[in-house]
Specification:
This protein has 226 residues and is mainly alpha-helical. The protein contains ten helices and three strands; from the N terminus they run αβααββααααααα. The termini are far apart.
């Protein structure tokens, strides 16, 4: 019972830390102190340490002998690599979902996410709706292993202040109608067209990756010109 309780507490601590990161309470580069986190979440230090070890394994934090744990700051190149991994994993997930079929309730949830993305007034709101959309597709597949892996990469690629990169990238690129891309994916899933659904979501994620990659190349050229 104790081991089980510790395991649940560690999962809780991990989820709370990532939630705080997504809300901007913790920023890339911030130190994560065990005692402070234990006070914040009102739990003992043991599950906090377990959560930080797991977060390091998952690539969210890095540790050093003297400095403890620090929230990682991902480079544009690292984020692009993660997006490429997502193309493969989410392509597999959406194909499985289209083959399996979705319930009317699941389709309605996807539609609400589509509308939230369409009506978003800020890039942060749009990114949150986009993250929800991809997360739901993963959840609806029903595979715990696939879902856990995808959610890790989804958080890595969208939580760590990527919005500021994307905002700068869109400043010199034509904006996309992301909600329309979501709509096409929903239609393909609903129709049971697994191959089309996979093609569409891969293209959808690939466009974001290429936009970031082009932005990264532009930054490098500007640095060389100085």
């Amino acid at each position: 019972m104790i081991a089980k309780t510790r395991g649940v507490s560690a999962v809780f601590a991990r989820d709370q830390i990532l939630l705080d990161v997504s809300k901007g309470y913790f920023l890339p580069g911030d130190k994560l102190m065990t005692a402070a986190l234990a006070r914040r979440y009102q739990i003992s230090r043991t599950p906090i340490r377990e959560a930080l070890i797991q977060l390091e394994r998952d690539g969210f934090v890095k540790s050093s002998v003297n400095a403890g744990y620090q929230l990682k700051l991902l480079s544009l190149e690292e984020i692009c690599d993660i997006y490429e991994i997502r193309e493969l994993l989410e392509g597999m997930a959406v194909e499985k979902l289209a083959q399996k079929g979705i319930t009317p309730g699941q389709r309605e949830k996807l539609r609400k996410s589509y509308l939230a993305c369409q009506d978003a007034e800020t890039i942060e709101q749009r990114d949150a709706a986009d993250r929800d959309f991809h997360g739901m597709i993963c959840d609806f597949v029903g595979s715990e292993i696939l879902c856990a892996i995808i959610h890790n990469y989804l958080v890595l690629s969208t939580t760590f202040n990527v919005a500021r990169y994307m905002h700068s990238a869109y400043a010199f690129a034509n904006d996309r109608d992301i909600h329309k891309e979501h709509g096409l994916i929903i239609d393909a899933i609903t129709a049971g067209n697994a191959k089309l659904a996979r093609k569409l979501i891969i293209k959808h994620i690939s466009l974001a990756r290429k936009l970031l990659s082009n932005f990264s190349d532009t930054l490098k050229k500007r640095k060389r010109q100085k």
